[in-house]
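Task card 7
Instruction: Convert sequence to structure tokens.
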Amino acid sequence: MFAIDESAFFSAQQLAEITQGTWENLSGELTVKKFHYVPKYIEPGDLLVIRHEKWPNKKYLYNLHKVPDMVAKGIVAIMANMETPLNVHIPILRVSDTYQALRKIAIRTSKLSTAKRILVVGSYGKTAFKTHLWHLLKEHLPTYTCLNSSNFNASTYCDFASLKRNTEVFVLEKPIEHERKILRRVKIIAPDIVVLTSIGHEHIEKFKTIDHIIWLKTTYASGLAAGGKFIAPYDSEYYPQILAALQRYPGINILTFGSGANCHARLLAQRFRQFGWDIVAAIEGEIIRYRVPFPEAHAPTASLAELLCVYHLGIDVKTAVAHYYQCTNFKSSGALYHIHYQNKHFYLYDQSRRGGIEGYSSFFKTVAAFQPEAQGKKIVVTSNFVDHVDGEVALLDLAYFKQLIADADIHCLFSVEYFTEHGAVVPDNVIWEHRFTVADIQEAVLNSLENDDILCVKGIYESDLPRLLRYLKQLPGLRMKRLVSRPWEDDDFFELSDVHEIT
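Output:
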């Protein structure tokens, strides 16, 4: 890995000046690895930021009670409000408001850092894109990103505060927000490249229409630095609307990825094999062949945008693609396991943590590509496709999903929770068993599995389907190994001359 040194932008005294704070228990200089406020992501050497009840986002709870555990874990300092009670012997930076203090540090760092900023936005795929790009770059340039899902404003501020003087590339993600907030916050980020991974129905209940979602996501182009680039998905059914929305920024450089003849990153051929994809692509006219070790149906196209970023950061794409084998997807992006239990073995494809209409479409296309060995069969466990309380059921094209499931050649489908709201998607030849709770169906799922089967689990964010994974992992004697598709070799990879024959 190309090393990022520990040379922070600010000394402890400068941090106090920027935040108008004061230090307690400080003796000598302080070396902080990262700033963070989510205890489960804290590592030794980090500075823990204490949340308070007036923080804008309420997703993460007040974390003061975690301080003893975090001190034992090896944090080197704490940032806390003046009145926050603390009984520790490590340095404490006392400020009037930890959220605003973080923001001040971020703004100052943004002005000083010369790192190229890659801002990732989109309905789906942001965290996976960010993770993959970091792996592709880290051997070539000092690159920083938070490898967890971190797109709230406080997370962005922590990321800026964590940059070092020699950081050359900074990759971050942002969610959809109201336009006023986007315009204000993208000025702090000042991205050199904005990547739009996808457009879909995520948050449609809040922002009402796809056109409004497109407008908001393309608003991030307003903050592009001089000479900045906006990378857009050509194969999206909404590409014309994306292009139209970008016309309000006439000075930007729009790059595309997909199957179009004029795409800057173009997919020429793809083949699914052994839970991964063999790919031939042209990146800014340079034809390369490579392998992406992820089974998802969208993985080939997603890799094009990643490699387009690599190219425009001055890295040789043919060298970079080898680093896909160092990637481990974030938990919401899916994982593949080989399981041995009692006298049988089977595969588990875990997509239990994140759903949505487009996510389910990609899931069933992925399942269709799976080819079980010997007499193995494909078994699916699913929750409802959308959160029933948001009224999104009306957006589902039931006939479309019924055809997707039929094409996936599923032997048996187990469903839980509110799936019966759209049970019409199950083809007549698929065995279907429904229970409302995961606990009521987990034994039936286990008993249905035989040698070489592929168990595919898909749930929306609100679903309890991760419980099924916990149930399997706790079975006595069960052995589970996470799989990464093997690299390609010259003797089994299709030749460039065969491109026209590959589908």
